[in-house]
Write a structure and sequence with these properties.
Elements (H helix, E strand, L loop, with lengths): L4 E6 L11 H4 L5 E5 L7 H13 L3 E5 L17 H21 L6 E2 L3 H9 L1 H14 L5 E4 L5 H10 L3 E6 L23 H13 L3 E2 L5 E2 L5 E3 L7 H14 L1
Parallel strand pairs: 1-2, 1-9, 2-3, 3-4, 5-6, 6-9
Antiparallel strand pairs: 7-8
Helix pairs in contact: 3-5, 4-5, 5-6, 7-8
Length: 247
């Protein structure tokens, strides 16, 4: 089994509303993708979650989204490429302020929700996010979806001089090309802890696993995501962490 990092979306609470169990999940992951205020989080949540990541030695990633608090960043928005570059820069800068105050810095950027998915289909939007990373800090990596074929992403990233990290998901169903199955489809989200664990370990080993139609899919990923809002997240993370460490 190749060394694969484990990541989780965190810091997604907002005011009195709570999302996920960051305090117990943080010690189990290598990377924390922290909301930056556009789809979730508020300044105090951001500050506290950065401090939690620093306490446990977890790498911090910015998790920028479309400006969509009501829809949790999962709705497509008609933003121009220029707007996307600006809104990603804005969110990176906001989170980096808390990182600097805590004596650390951002390690990477992973877009959230609809923005993340739109990058798979829209060259202009992907180029816009790459531009934001390049403008913010030379060498700041962008985390994108691992597909059957990522030559397009590699070419655009090379043109922007931005390193890429490829991500796969333990608790999401996939389509044949490696894109995530839309959440509106039955079976798009895995809830059975054993199925989540089996898919995660197959990805970590570079082995095939079933797509949403039951056909074999094989992906090469640098990092593996378990969603913090999945009710099974903590149980799966504990078992997965133990097996990855043992391997």
């Amino acid at each position: 089994m190749n060394r694969i990092l484990l990541n989780c979306d965190m810091g997604e609470s907002f005011g009195a509303w709570r999302m996920g169990d960051d305090a117990h999940a943080m010690p189990l992951v290598d990377q924390a993708n922290l909301a930056c205020g556009f789809h979730a989080a508020d300044p105090l949540t951001m500050q506290r979650t950065v401090a939690l990541a620093v306490e446990h030695g977890v790498r911090i990633g910015a998790h920028p989204a479309y400006p969509d608090l009501v829809g949790f960043g999962r709705r497509q928005m008609q933003c121009s490429a220029e707007e996307v570059t600006a809104l990603v820069l804005y969110q990176i800068g906001a989170l980096e302020a808390f990182c600097r105050a805590a004596g650390t810095q951002l390690a990477y950027v992973k877009p959230h929700g609809a923005l993340y998915n739109d990058l798979v289909r829209d060259d202009a939007l992907l180029a816009a996010v790459l531009e934001a990373c390049a403008l913010y800090r030379k060498g700041l990596p962008l985390m994108v979806l691992a597909l059957r074929d990522n030559r397009r992403e590699l070419q655009l990233a090379d043109e922007a001089d931005v390193p890429l990290m490829f991500e796969a998901f333990a608790d999401r169903a996939y389509q044949a090309d490696g894109q995530l199955a839309p959440r509106r489809l039955s079976g798009a989200l895995h809830h059975d802890p054993q199925r989540i664990l089996d898919q995660a370990l197959a990805i970590a080993r570079g082995e095939p696993f079933p797509d949403i139609d039951g056909k074999p899919l094989q992906l090469q990923a640098d990092s593996l995501c378990v969603h913090g809002d999945n009710p099974q997240a903590l149980a799966v993370l504990r078992r997965l962490r133990a097996q990855l460490d043992a391997a």
